[in-house]
Known about the structure:
The protein is α/β, with parallel strands linked by helices. It has seven helices and twelve strands. It has helices at residues 3-10, 15-24, 67-73, 94-103, 117-123, 178-200, 205-211, and strands at residues 30-31, 35-36, 43-54, 79-83, 90-92, 107-114, 127-132, 141-146, 150-152, 155-157, 162-166, 169-173. Helix 3 links the parallel strand 3 (43-54) and strand 4. Helix 2 crosses helix 6 and helix 4 runs parallel beside helix 5. It starts with a helix and ends with a helix. The relative contact order is 0.23. The mean pLDDT is 94.
Amino acid sequence: xxxxxxxxxxxxxxxxxxANALDDLGLHGVIxxxxxxxxGTKAIGPAVTVRERTGxxxxxxxxxxxxGHMIEAAPAGSVIVVDNGGHPVSTWGGMASRAAQVKGIAGxxxxxxxxxxxEQQQFRFPLFARHVVxxxxxxxxxxxxxxxxxxxxxxxxxxxxxxxxDGSGICxxxxxxxxxxxxxxxxxxxxxxxAEDEIAKGLSFREALSKFAKI
Length: 215
């Protein structure tokens, strides 16, 4: 199954449902510490990974910030995933979101900070971060690698692993398991819809839990 088919398949499936499938397959792929900066947005796409280092102001030359390089490295439909060690310093601002949006990039995850909250609401580019802070990254952040495996909250993210992120959290889907995860997730989503219909017709929640194991 190609990436576009996976993206369409996961478009209407919540990360809570995908997490059920990851559990059934014994896969560790849930990141919970990063939150949606723009409520109601969703990011789905293959990962473009970035590793950064952060220091005090003046630690690195401005040229090492390289946000433009990150955007240039990410094809349309991809999700940029940045490991900045959880530092409360901004890796990404509003104009970066606008540039990524124009290019067709599907979203951004940052284990660290972003800024320009008001502009982010205006642009509605899907981004997920640990912090929203005004502190600039220039001379504080250095991009050390693009396109190498990274780890966030103990979850390994490799280039091209599929990212699905929504208001509940983030799921990292190993690319070799993505089709099977989609099959299970679609089955669980169908169970959810059926359970909702039956509850509306009088089925108790206790009965629903017995009938549908993954709701």
